[in-house]
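2024-03-11 09:14:02 INFO queue: dequeued item UPF0678 fatty acid-binding protein-like protein At1g79260, len=170
2024-03-11 09:14:02 INFO validating residues
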Amino acid sequence: MDENKNKGSTAPKTSPAVVHPAVEPLSYLLGTWRGQGEGGFPTIHSFSYAEELHFSHSPNKPVIGYTQKTWKLSSGEPMHAESGYWRPKPDGTIEVVIAQSTGLVEVQKGAYNAEEKVIQLQSELVGNASKVKEIRRCFQLVDGVLSYDVQMATNSITLQPHLKAALKKL
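2024-03-11 09:14:37 INFO prediction written
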């Protein structure tokens, strides 16, 4: 008789899903956030947009799933999207990978302050980008509003403000 045949049916029951201890300090992010933002850069016209962020957590795993999408306020036409994973560490550091709909990828490292609900990220690598050389992101939760700002540098322009938005949890 095959000893492995019935192993699946006799597996011990697992405990209920819980937020992983590494994710717990950032668990306030979990869920869907929606709001508006504005962007600009020395080489482009300023613009406004609507946005939705979604942070999810696979039970018992030390990672937060991240998706983002923006659309034009006037027409609802899609503008930008990105997705990735946030890996908070117990020592207050965080690693983030993001793939953008433009083909650009970011590997970011940073730190979070769970008490002040601030996350600061700095690009370690910006891949598949002909011009973008550096990206910094800062997220902060204050009075139920998740705000962020993004700074960007290119081959010819030093680090400049690029995006900022304010979002509320749905």
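2024-03-11 09:14:37 INFO annotate: The CA atoms of residues 149 and 164 lie 4 Å apart.
2024-03-11 09:14:38 INFO item closed
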